[in-house]
């Protein structure tokens, strides 16, 4: 039985409109003189790279940019970034972008400090010590990578996304400026936003910390449901319920963008201490097979998995209905829990996230193999409130087909 829990975050969170204007001071406090910004050409064209470069240069730093970031990045992109960093020899890395670029910077920060190849660190707690100094600046509101202990890359050889999990992967500073998300297109806003909701719901309905089934001798950053995680998840769910539709509908709605930026951090703090569960385990092979965005895959699967899990955590699911603004007065706890599933389905459909696996290019004959891969991701599945067999996961995939 685990009776002790811990809570980890980025060392510093700097939040608010124009927060990127402070990046020079933040880098200077880290004693940095040379910064490598890790980003992509879309964000360069959108002018976001310049918004970060300028205050760094003004603070006297020598700045270069790696613009080879890509959505759902491959290990190869991580190695390319590492190679550039070895040549430029920065003393801080700045991950600028959605989860994809922030994760790429994290991977390069691991390789710069510890050498080896990305595969050496895949799994739980394989990083031997602190990584290269890292500042993360999100331009989407969703993944929470700016505060999380994870980096996710695509193993293109094995057609699956793989996670590296370690508390050493937390950023030295997360600079969260909602203005950086104003140019985020509606589809990316919707997909990343529902990813944040998935993080919060999976953490809030996780197996309890006291019952967390960690095998003898294994270490993990995930700990099961605990009070700090609950506080973060509750607020994140409320904020997503209030602001995600608005942010998708009108990208310039600053109040909604700010609410979603906070939701993403809180959901990131919740899942990266408590854990993510079956939705993520099922999305990793789906994303690896059809290259949908992580958020679209999660959002699609979320209500189907909630339906499977609801009996194991009826009270938590009923709470989620209330947090999402549903009126559950007079309903039984189970009926209220079912309202949470309906509310998530409505939200998913309203923001245009796909509803069926067939709509994202999955073929029926793939479902068994996808289920087998999902069931293999043990570090995630032990967080799920119900244990699952391959047959059960295949049945959920069929339901979602
Ligand atoms: N490390 C973690 O803790 C964690 C958690 C969840 C997901 N992830 C990973 O994060 C990735 C998904 O990240 P994401 O959902 O943030 O999307 P993303 O980083 O893949 O970005 C999607 C696209 O949107 C563009 N974009 C991003 N912000 C923009 C802006 N402000 N203006 C214009 N264009 C913009 C990007 O250039 C990119 O082409 C996946 O690989 C996923 O597995 C990581
Ligand atoms: Zn996720």
Instruction: List all distinct small molecules, including ions and cofactors, that are bound in this structure.
Output: nicotinamide-adenine-dinucleotide, zinc ion
Proportion of strand residues:
5-15%
Sheet with most strands: 6 strands, parallel
What's the CATH H-level homologous superfamily of the largest domain?
A: Dehydroquinate synthase-like - alpha domain
Architecture per CATH nomenclature, i.e. the level-2 architecture of the largest domain: Up-down Bundle
Sequence of secondary-structure elements: EHEHHEHEHEEEEEHHHHHHHHHH
> What is CATH's topology name of the largest domain?
Dehydroquinate synthase-like, alpha domain
Gyration radius (Cα, Å) is 20 Å
Under CATH at level 1, the class of the largest domain stands as Mainly Alpha
Strand order of the largest sheet: 1-9-6-4-2-3
Structural class: alpha/beta
Average the pLDDT over all residues and give the rounded result: 96
Q: What is the percent of helical residues?
A: 40-55%
């Amino acid at each position: 039985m685990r009776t002790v829990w811990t809570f980890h975050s980025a060392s510093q969170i700097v939040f608010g409109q124009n927060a990127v204007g402070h990046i020079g001071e933040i880098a200077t406090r880290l004693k940095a003189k040379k910064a490598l910004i890790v980003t992509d050409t879309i964000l360069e064209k959108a002018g976001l790279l310049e918004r970060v470069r300028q205050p760094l240069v003004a603070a006297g730093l020598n700045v270069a940019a790696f613009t080879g970031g890509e959505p759902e990045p491959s290990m190869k992109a991580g190695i390319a970034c590492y190679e550039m960093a070895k040549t430029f020899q920065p003393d801080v890395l700045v991950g600028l972008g959605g989860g994809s670029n922030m994760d790429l910077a994290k991977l390069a920060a691991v390789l710069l400090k510890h050498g080896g190849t990305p595969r050496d660190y895949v799994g739980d707690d394989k990083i031997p010590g602190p990584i290269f100094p890292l500042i993360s600046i999100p331009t989407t509101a969703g993944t929470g990578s700016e505060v999380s202990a994870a980096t996710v890359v695509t193993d293109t050889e094995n057609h699956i996304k793989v996670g590296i999990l370690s508390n050493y992967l937390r950023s030295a500073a997360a600079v969260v400026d909602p203005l950086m998300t104003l140019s985020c297109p509606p589809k990316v806003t919707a997909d990343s936003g529902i990813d944040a909701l998935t993080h919060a719901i999976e953490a809030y309905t996780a197996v309890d910390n006291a019952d967390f089934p960690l095998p003898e001798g294994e270490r993990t950053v995930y700990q099961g449901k605990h009070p700090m995680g609950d506080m973060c998840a509750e607020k994140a769910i409320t904020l997503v319920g209030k602001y995600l539709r608005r942010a998708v509908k009108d990208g310039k709605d600053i109040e909604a963008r700010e609410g979603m930026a906070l939701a993403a951090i809180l959901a990131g703090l919740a899942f990266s201490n408590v854990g993510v569960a079956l939705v993520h385990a099922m999305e990793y092979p789906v994303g690896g097979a059809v290259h949908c965005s992580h958020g679209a895959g999660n959002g699609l699967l979320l209500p189907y998995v909630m339906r499977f899990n609801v009996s194991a955590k009826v009270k938590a699911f009923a709470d989620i209905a209330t947090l999402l603004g549903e009126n559950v007065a007079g309903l039984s706890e189970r009926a209220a829990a079912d309202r949470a599933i309906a509310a998530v389905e409505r939200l998913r459909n309203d923001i245009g996230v796909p509803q069926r696996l067939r709509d994202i290019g999955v073929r029926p004959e793939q479902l068994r193999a996808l289920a087998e891969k999902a069931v293999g991701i043990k570090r995630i599945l032990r967080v799920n409130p119900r244990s699952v067999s391959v047959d059960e996961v295949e049945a959920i995939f069929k339901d979602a087909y």
